Structures are given as C-alpha cells and as structure tokens.
Amino acid sequence: MSLAVALRHAQGAFRLDVTFEAPPGITVLFGRSGSGKTTIVNAVAGLLRPDAGRVVLRGRTLLDTAAGIALPPHRRRLGYIFQEGRLFPHLSVRGNLRYGRAFAPRDARPADEARIVEMLGIGHLLDRRPAALSGGEKQRVAIGRALLSAPQMILADEPLAALDEARKAEILPYFERLRDEVSIPILYVSHAAAEVARLATTVVALQDGRVVGQGPAEEVLGDPMVTPAGVRAAGAMLRAQVVRHHADGLTELDAGGVPLFLPALDLAPGQGVRLRIAAQDVILSRDRPEGLSALNILPGRVEALRPGAGPGMLVSLATPAGRVLARVTRRSAETLALAPGMTCHAVMKSVAIAPGDIGGN
C-alpha cells in the first residue's frame, strides 16, 4: 500500500478512531461534515498532532507517536490543495508555479513543468495574475503548484467545495487526468457522492469519526449498508464503454454486455465511462417491463435489503453491469415480495443520469 494510516484523536466531544490503507490512485475520504475527514488530512499533513497514531507513506514513517516520530510539515513532502486556490496575488501564474518548484527537494527528480502545464490546460494563463482567473482556473494553478513541489503524495481538502456547478464541471476532468496520469497517491476529501463516483479509485467511508466502509469505489458505493452521506444520497457506480452515437442524440454504452443509453456524450467509441446511478432514480420490476418510455433496463438478482428509519428501503441488485441500488418504499418491497436471491429488473430513465454523474475512465 502507498499509505497506511492509524489515528486516534479527541477534540471536545468528537472522537476520531480510524485505520485505513490507500493504494495508488485517488483515495476519497467520504462522509458528511463533522465525520473527521479534514482532521485526518491535517494529521497526515502534520498540521495537527493527534493524541496517538501512525502514518507511513511509501515505507517512510511520517508519524509514530509511540516512537516519538513526528516529521514537521515541510519534511513530509506532501502537496496540499485547499478549498480555495490560495495563490500569491502579487505573482503571475508562472511565478506561483515556480514557487512550488522551489520547494522540491534537491535530490528529487525535477517535475516536467511543460507537461504539467499542458495536462492542466493553463499555458494561456501563465502571464496572468490570480485576480484575473476564475475559481476553476485558480484551482488548476494550485494543482500545478503542488505537483511542481515533487511531492510523494497530494492532499486535496474538498477542492471543489468553493466552486459553482459550472466551475466544478470545468475542473473535474483535470482531476480525472491527475488520477490516470500521475503516479503519486492522492488523498481527496469530499462529501459529494457524484465527485466520489467520478474520481475515486478507493473509498474510505466515514461516519462520526469511524471508518464504516473501505475498498474499491464500486464496492463501497454499491453497499446498501454504507451510506456515509445519507440514504437520500445513495447511489452505485458502474463502468461502461462507449459503443456508438445515434442520430437522435443518444450515446449507446456497453455495461457488462447490457446496452445503456444516455444523452450524447463527448467521448469516442471505445472510451471507458464511469457513471453514478442514484438510488432514487431506479425503479424495480419483478418481470421485464414492456411499453415503458425508459430505455435502460438491467436484469439482476436481489442481494440485500436495508430498511430505513422511515417508510423507505434500500435494495441492492447484482446486475451484469455491476451492483445497482434502488430506493423504494417498504410497501413497494412488500408488494413485490422482494427477497435476497430473487430475480428483478432495474429500470432507469436516460435523462435521469445527470452530466455531473458521468466521467471518463
């Protein structure tokens, strides 16, 4: 594993007690506000000294309270991306980027500045000052500055939280490229299910200072027993591949041998896609339905049912495309006589899948 973390910390009435491992890629700390996400990131960064803990990055011990080891932040070789870009207003974009490079250790392999500038699409911004940048542009520059410091890991604390929906849509593809093209691990904080589904390689789900689920994104997001952002935000992640674009404005995907149709995607045939299916947008049918306007019908088998505190129930289905969650009423579940092992069909409208829930893979 690239990163191993074990932390215990008390802060007022809040108690943090977590243990998790993060492989290469983007590991998302996922949970509601107050679940301990930022506390964990700050402890890893050395900005907070926990009551007890151990943090090991690529075999290098950053923190071991039992052994009296606590490297200061500047010796941990981490790049930190905050909610706001926090760029130096008196420096140009080029100056801010090179400020990051100045903190690279002398023995570190120099980062390829031209490649990073190209990857983040900021070449035309190099001579501008931060005041002339949009929120999304500032965050891209902040990412570049962090990468040019030659870090062994990137920490990103809700980097999209301060952006409006348009700016989020602008910058998410750059985090996807970061995930796919940069070899260092990334620890990413989020409470937004759509972000997690689009970006996460691994998910560490948090609730009240505890880890309630961890593992590959498909497994954690598709587990009906793990809903760190609440049942209303529950939804599974599927992987698919673009097959063709149709003249009527729909893109056809292949999801485990099952066709799915979405509004036109700007992706070439053969490209991989990650998409989040919100549980509240899924309808269940015992038999394959006929005469519906919905185009997407996935055959499956009921894996588990999780009753909610109110009249709702979360149902998990194993389908050829992957695990799908459906949020239905208890009355509907009883009417359908849903039970583990029975066959069922998940029905989804093409237009119900929001553009923000679809990303490259």
From TrEMBL:
Pfam families (alphabetical): ABC_tran, TOBE
Gene Ontology cellular-component terms listed: membrane
Catalytic EC class: hydrolase
Its EC number(s): 3.6.3.29
Domain ABC transporter: 1-233
Keyword annotations: ATP-binding, Cell inner membrane, Cell membrane, Hydrolase, Membrane, Molybdenum, Nucleotide-binding, Translocase, Transport
Entry GO MF terms: ABC-type transporter activity; ATP binding; ATP hydrolysis activity; molybdate ion transmembrane transporter activity
Domain called Mop: residue spans: 291-357
NCBIfam families: modC_ABC
Protein name as annotated: Molybdenum ABC transporter ATP-binding protein
Organism: Mesobaculum littorinae
